[in-house]
User: Which sequence fits this backbone?
């Protein structure tokens, strides 16, 4: 068993959903003395119809067409990465450096890691893109003069994830679909560091990253302690917390692979007592019966007293199963200390405790009344559960 570093993402509708983070000086990369400071933006993105015309920003600060208050824009247009950094001496939006990918690098309906780096040189040649850990061929350019204005701006505009700060944003100014694990660094990451961040296609546990000390902000975008309350999208580095706006919501995304944290040291209580709040029988928050490093729900029938999980006569068994698509079943078994045998579990109404799906996605939550059960064991059958499938179980007295 293990805890996923990432399980959630923020879902945006492409209309006006976004995450709003109040302005901080750390989000502006002009030093006020005619110089720019280096930075890196990183995000995991999922665009359902990237090549079909979807377009929208990942990270912005300012209003497009807003005169002097836009600082930068990192976005895609039909899967092509684009970036713009704007001159800071009140000259409007045409004085800027820019970078555009030569070809689309975001495929349809696929989790993709995108990165923008800037070396702070005041030159368009200091901008680079990376997709899934590799440099993305792109063409740099500039509109009018950028460096003569002393670098980029430092406005009071908020940082916005998933939208520009335009009140009536159009389709090109709003992001559609999902985004996870957004990071801002105070340096230009090297190709090696970007590759480490991509992590072979798994969301990186940034606490273990060699660049952790260079992070300005790390928003997990729904994971860990995040909520949809005001300030509920937590910056786990600097405390620059954001808020979901206009209907953006936290979604579960088991298909996005991730680092895992082993649950060594996680202690399952020896006695729960009477619990109104369902308690995870496998350990602490985000520890799963299935969803570990290789997906580890057994396929064999249980044997011996050490198999399975303690239920301690809790009255209700809560089950949750999420999978992209499968033809499989999960069957619960119970152990009798009196006979020393395992048998398939039935609830108090005589219904077998079993979940099954045939050729369809699984997104199921069920509660069974199972009074008098000491231990429970789960066995998978049919098509093997994928490592990205999730199955969790909890118990309660009420």
Assistant:
């Amino acid at each position: 068993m293990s805890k996923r570093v990432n399980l959630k993402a923020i879902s945006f509708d492409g209309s006006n959903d976004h995450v709003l983070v109040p302005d901080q000086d750390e989000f502006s990369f002009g030093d006020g003395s005619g110089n720019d400071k280096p930075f890196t933006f990183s995000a995991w993105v999922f665009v359902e119809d990237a090549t079909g015309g979807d377009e929208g920003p990942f990270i912005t600060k300012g209003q497009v067409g807003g005169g002097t208050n836009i600082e930068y824009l990192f976005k895609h247009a039909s899967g092509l990465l684009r970036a713009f950094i704007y001159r800071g001496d009140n000259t409007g939006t045409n004085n800027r450096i820019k970078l555009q990918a030569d070809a689309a690098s975001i495929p349809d309906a696929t989790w993709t890691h995108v990165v923008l780096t800037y070396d702070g040189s005041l030159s368009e040649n200091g901008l680079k893109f990376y997709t899934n850990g590799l440099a993305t061929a792109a063409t740099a350019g500039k509109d009018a003069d950028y460096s003569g204005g002393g670098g980029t701006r430092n406005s009071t505009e908020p940082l916005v994830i998933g939208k520009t700060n335009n009140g009536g944003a159009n389709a090109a100014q709003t992001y559609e679909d999902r985004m996870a694990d957004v990071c801002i660094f105070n340096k230009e990451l090297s190709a090696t560091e970007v590759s480490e961040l991509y992590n072979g296609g798994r969301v990186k546990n940034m606490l273990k990253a060699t660049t952790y000390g260079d992070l300005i902000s790390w928003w997990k975008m729904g994971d860990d302690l995040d909520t949809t309350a005001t300030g509920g999208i937590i910056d786990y580095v600097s405390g620059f917390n954001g808020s979901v706006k206009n209907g953006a919501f936290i979604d579960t995304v088991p298909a996005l692979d991730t680092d895992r944290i082993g649950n060594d040291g996680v202690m399952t209580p020896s006695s729960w007592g009477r619990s109104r709040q369902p308690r995870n029988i496998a350990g602490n928050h985000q520890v799963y019966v299935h969803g570990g490093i290789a997906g580890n729900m057994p396929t064999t029938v249980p044997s011996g007293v050490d198999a399975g999980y303690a239920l301690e006569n809790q009255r209700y068994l809560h089950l949750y199963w999420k999978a992209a698509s499968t033809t499989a079943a999960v069957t619960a078994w119970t152990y009798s200390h009196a006979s020393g045998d395992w048998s398939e579990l039935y609830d108090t109404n005589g219904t077998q405790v079993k979940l099954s799906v045939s050729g369809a996605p699984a997104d199921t939550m069920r509660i069974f009344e199972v009074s008098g059960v000491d231990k429970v064991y789960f066995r998978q059958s049919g098509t093997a559960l994928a490592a990205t499938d999730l199955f969790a179980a909890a118990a309660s007295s009420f």
About this structure: The longest helix spans residues 191-198. The mean pLDDT is 87. The CA atoms of residues 3 and 15 lie 34 Å apart.
